[in-house]
Amino acid sequence: MKGKRDWLKLHAVLVYVFLYLPILILIVLSFNSSRTSAVWKGFTLNWYVKLFQNRLLWEAVQNSLIIATATALIATTLGTAAALSLHRRQIRGRLWVEGLLYLPLVLPDIVLGVGALVLFTALGVGLGLGTMLAAHVGTSISYVVLVLRARLADMDQRLEEAARDLGATPWQTLWHVTLPLLAPGILAAVLLSFTLSLDDFILSFFTAGPGSTTLPLRIYGMMKTGLTPEVNALSTVMVLVTGIATTLYLRLTQNRI
Amino acid sequence: MLAPTILWLLALVAAPLVLMLLYSFAARISPDSPWPQGLTLEHYARLADPLYLRIFIRSILQAGLATFFSLLLGYPLAYYIARSPLHKRGRLLLLVVIPFWTNFLVRTYALMVLLRAQGVINSILTATGLISEPLNLLYNEAAVQVGLVYTLLPLLILPLYSNLEKLDARLISAAQDLGAGPFATFWNVTWPLSLPGVLVGCMMVFISAFGMYLVPDLMGGAKSIMVGNLIQNQFLQARNWPFGAAVALALAGVALVVALLVQRAGGLDGGEVRR
Fold it and tell me: Which of A139, A254, B81, B140 stands the most exposed, by the fewest C-beta atoms within 10 Å?
C-alpha cells in the first residue's frame, strides 16, 4: 500500500509541475530585462512601468470591469429569482425550462458567440458594450441558477416550514429566512458571474464594437502582434489577482449552508 | 419570477440558434437586408467536402486525444487529492482551481513562451549545445494537443474529485478484506463507482476541446486549424454566414449529442459540476 501511495504522490507532483512551471517561468521572465530572448539578462521593473503607462490597456480594464460588474448584478438578480421559483413551485413545461437553462452550459462558447453576432446583425443593433453585456448575461444566468439550486437543495426545508408555521407571510419567510440562508451562495454566484464575464474572450470577440475592447481582447491583440515582455508583466498581475480571488471564492463556498 | 430569465435565454440563446438554422438553409443574403432568402441544402452538403471533413475529423481526433491524456493525468491526481488527509485536501484542490480560474489567454501564452523559437526550451537546448537550430515546437498539431491538455485538464479533475471524495472508503476496505489485490480493488470497486465523475469530466474536456478556438488559433499553424477556427473564418473573414451557420450548428449538434449520451449514462444525475 505504501508503495502505491508513493507512486500516486510522484504523479501528483509531476502534474502540478506541468500546471505551474509555465506560469512560474512567465512570472520570472516578466522581470527579465531582455526584450526578445528567454535568456536571463538582468532584473528590471521596466515592463511593469510600461504596462501602467499603457492607456489602451487601462481603457480595456475599465471596460472589462464595467461589463463584469453589470453582468454579475443582472445575472445574479435574475438567476436568484429563477432558482427560487424553480425550487418552490410546480412549473408547466419544466422540462423545456431545464433544457433552456442547460443549453449555455453545454453549447461551445463559439456557437453562442456567432449566434449573438447573427442576432444583433439581423436586428440591426450596433455592436458595443450593450450587446456584449446582453451576451455575457445570457450565459452567466445558467451558472448562477446551477450554483443557487445546489444551495437550495442543501438547505434545511424545515426552517422555511417553521417560519410559515409561526405565521410568517411568504414574503417575510423569503426576506427573513430564505435569503439570509442563501446569502453565501448568492455572493458566490456574484463572484462566479463576475469572473466568467471578466475572463470571457469568445463572446466578447464576436459582440464587441469599436471602443468596447475588453482586457482579454486587448491581450489577444497584443499576443497576435508578437510576444512582448509587457504581456509577461500583465499576465503576472492577472495570475496574482486570480490567485487571491480564487482563495476568497473557495473560502465563501466552503461555508456550506 | 422565472420570466425574465426565460426571456433573456430565449432571446440570447434560443433565438440565435433558430436564426442560424434559417441562415444555414439560405440560398443567398442580399447586401441591403440581413435576412436570409431562398432555400438550399448546399451548405450542409459542403460539410462533406474533403477540405472541411478533414477539419472535422482533426477536431474529433484532437478532442478525443486531449480527453484521453487528461484522464491519464487527471484521474490519479483526483484520486490522490480525494484520499489525502482532510486538512491537506483544501490546499491541494486550490492548486488545481487556481490554474482553472487563471485567464485562458494567459495560460496559453505561458505555453507559447515556453515553446516558441526563442522560447525557454529552445534557449536551454541551444545553450547546452544539444541543438544548433531552434526546434519547431510551436504552430503544429502536437503544440495544439499540448495546449488543449494544459488548459482543459482542470475541467476533468474538478468533477472527478467531487465524485471520488464521496466514495465510501469502507467499500475499498471491504474489497481488500475479501482478498482483492490493489488492481482488482481498483477495477471492480473504485473505477465503476467513479464512472459518473469520469463521464462528466471527459464530456467537459471533449466538448471544450472540440469547439476550441483560441488554442489552435494561437498555438497551431494553417494545417492544424479546428472547427472553431473554421466558424470564425466563415463569419469574420470569408463572410459566408450560411456556411458558417451550418458548421456552427453541426458543432452544437455534436456537443448536444455528447451531453445527452452522458446524461443517459447517468453521469449528469444531480448535475453537480463544481466550478
Answer: A254
**A13 at the B interface (CB within 8 A)?**
no
Domain assignment present for residue B22? The answer is no
CATH of the domain at B58: 1.10.3720.10
pLDDT tens digit string along B35-93? 777 788 999 999 999 999 999 999 999 999 999 999 999 999 999 999 899 888 888 99
Q: Which residue of B has its CA nearest to A141?
A: B5
Q: A228 CA to chain B: closest CA distance, Å?
A: 10
Domains: count for chain B: 1
Q: Is the pTM of this model over 0.80?
A: yes
Q: What is the 3-state secondary structure (H, E, C) of chain B?
A: CCHHHHHHHHHHHHHHHHHHHHHHCCCEECCCCCCEECCCCHHHHHCCCHHHHHHHHHHHHHHHHHHHHHHHHHHHHHHHHHCCCHHHHHHHHHHHHHHHHCCHHHHHHHHHHHHCCCCHHHHHHHHCCCCCCCCCCCCCHHHHHHHHHHHHHHHHHHHHHHHHHHCCHHHHHHHHHCCCCHHHHHHHHHHHHHHHHHHHHHHHHHHHHHCCCHHHHHHCCHHHCCHHHHHHHHHHHCCCHHHHHHHHHHHHHHHHHHHHHHHHCCCCHHHCCCC
Residue B21 counted as domain residue: no
Q: B85 touching A, CB under 8 A?
A: no
Domains of chain A from N-terminus onward: 48-254 (1.10.3720.10)
Show residues of chain B in contact with A20, CB under 8 Å. Answer: 95, 99
B191 touches chain A (CB under 8 A): no
ipTM: 0.90
Residue B16 included in any domain: no
